[in-house]
Amino acid sequence: ATAAFEIDGHQQRVMLWCDPLTATESVIGHELLHLRRDICEGQIKLMPTRFCDPAMSNMAYQLENEMEHIFIIPEEISLFSDAEDRWAKDYADVINRIMNREKPDKTEMVLAWMQIRNSLPNHTDLAKKFGPHIYAQGEMWAQESQSFNDVAKEAKDQNNKRRLLSWMMEAIHTWHPDHRDTVGYGSWQITGAGLNFEPMGVGLLPD
Length: 207
Hints:
single chain, 207 residues, alpha+beta, three-stranded antiparallel sheet, two-stranded antiparallel sheet, 5 strands, 58% helix, 16% strand
């Protein structure tokens, strides 16, 4: 990545770093949008617990990042003229990588479809290329990809991440039942004690 950020509740600091040779205004703006949603808005977040193994922990962070991108990428595109072409190129590379895999990864495929249909709706060329590949994996994969897309679109249109996070947690319980009690959720909060991540629960979200 040419830019990234870290919120450290223990050290009470926020760090944002970038490659000064490649980071553009939109790349920095993207990270600032993440920070605004995390700190200023206190958006609910998927978060691995200390009982999570490294592989599932990485997946939880990936799922969280993809959910945030449903809201952030469209806003970034509206703010920076170069953002749409950059993301379209990135997801063209993602699609090529997925289609060239000997063994397809369902999570990767579902998330990529969700992004190109919601974050890059004008790039129908990506959907036309990727859609047949998804259907070739079987009807169930196609249905699950479309279901994720529909939930993501509703969450984006209503600016309601909780609904999408609930759906993601249900997917974890279905696809990775051994980890159903190791992934939680919460939000960053600023109080008199400073900046802290406040856990809200583990497992499925209550209605």
